[in-house]
Amino acid sequence: MKTVTLKEAFRILEDASAVIINDEVVLFPSLSELTEDHTNEFLFFRWDWDGNEYSLKFCEGDNQKVNLVGSSMFLFDTDADGEEDHTQITILITKELE
Q1: Nearest to residue 63, comparing CAs of 81, 90, 27, 37?
Q2: Which of 38, 84, 35, 85 minimizes the C-alpha distance to 61?
Q3: Angstrom distance (rounded) from CA 26 to CA 35
Q4: For residues 45 and 29, is the Cβ–Cβ distance under 8 A?
Q5: Fewest CB within a 10 Å sphere: which of 11, 56, 66, 88?
Q6: Residue-range domain boundaries for the chain
Q7: How far is Cα 4 from Cα 60, in angstroms, rounded to an integer?
Q8: Which residues of 46-63 are buried (b: 16+ CB within 10 A; e: fewer)?
Q9: Is residue 97 pLDDT above 60, yes or no?
């Protein structure tokens, strides 16, 4: 496992052509700018699954350090119930990371 800053994780997400959320659904990341405001929602996902709507929001304050394992990063969802809850985001890219 490797730990990177939010800025480094953000650059990886910017290069992603799509992501897989928790090994279940393929989505395109919706990114906002990083502002150094802990309440800023920099990443958002929304999708429908079997007629149910799901969404995930990620704030800067919850994700200052991001764990990477292979091609996956682990971020804390703003609306998660517990501090141990995290979302696995597997990166699908079309170009090499530098």
Answers
A1: 37
A2: 38
A3: 27
A4: yes
A5: 11
A6: 2-93
A7: 13
A8: eeeeeeeeeebbbbbebb
A9: no
Secondary structure (3-state) at 8 = helix
pTM higher than the cut 0.90: no
Q: How far is CA 35 from CA 11, 38, 49, 51, 91, in A?
A: 14, 8, 32, 35, 23
Place of tokens 């501090």: 83
Please provide the DSSP assignment of 31-64 as one string: E----S-TT-EEEEEEEEETTEEEEEEEETGGGS
Give tens-digit pLDDT for 45-93: 999 989 999 999 999 999 999 999 999 999 999 887 665 678 999 999 8
Asked whether the CA dihedral 20, 84, 10, 59 is positive or negative, the reply is positive
